[in-house]
Every structure is written in C-alpha cells, then in structure tokens.
Amino acid sequence: xxxxxxxxxxxxxxxxxxxxxxxxxxxxxxxxxxxxxxxxxxxxxxxxxxxxxxxxxxxxxxxxxxxxxxxxxxxxxxxxxxxxxxxxxxxxxxxxxxxxxxxxxxxxxxxxxxxxxx
Length: 118
Fold this sequence. Notes:
With 118 residues, the chain is α+β, with helices and mostly antiparallel strands.
C-alpha cells in the first residue's frame, strides 16, 4: 500500500513505512504513552519497542482514499487510558493530515500493556 496524492504538478506516492514511522513518532510524543508495542502472535507476548522500531507498532491501510491507522501502545501506570487514547487519536490524526495532505479516516488504539514509569 502506498499513500497517493494527485496534484496539479503530478502524483506523489508515500511509502507505508514512512507513514508508519511518522505515526509512531507522533504517538510516543503523547503524554501517558510509554512506547509502541510489538505483539508476537505465535507466543502472545507483548514487547516494548525501542525508538528505532516505532513502525512495528503501527498498521496503516488505505480505504476509500482515506488512511486507516491501528496503533499498539503501552501506557504509563496511573494515567487515564481514555484521556491518553483521545489525545493520541487527535495528535496522530493532526500530524498525519498535516504531513501528508491525506485524510485520516479511522484510528484504532490498542492498549497492549501498562508500565510503571520512574
């Protein structure tokens, strides 16, 4: 899947990895998000990803000319999960729309774990 924009000057294609890294970077900047999560489907184990693997906690698909985003996150203990998720959706939507010029249709937030932060 590639994000595609048609302009007066031509066509702009954005690779899915670029969109995923950008969305993951925006997500970890949100208050209450400890990091992105990677799920090992074979073992059912959730793993906190390092900053260089942010793409693996994000799934982006293109449906009806809109980006659909799925984020797998780990939140900090003691914060409101609802408040974190709402802030995360608003932040990722704004950043992706400003960065790409494409419309974001749906953002799904999957909270995979909770961590105590020092």
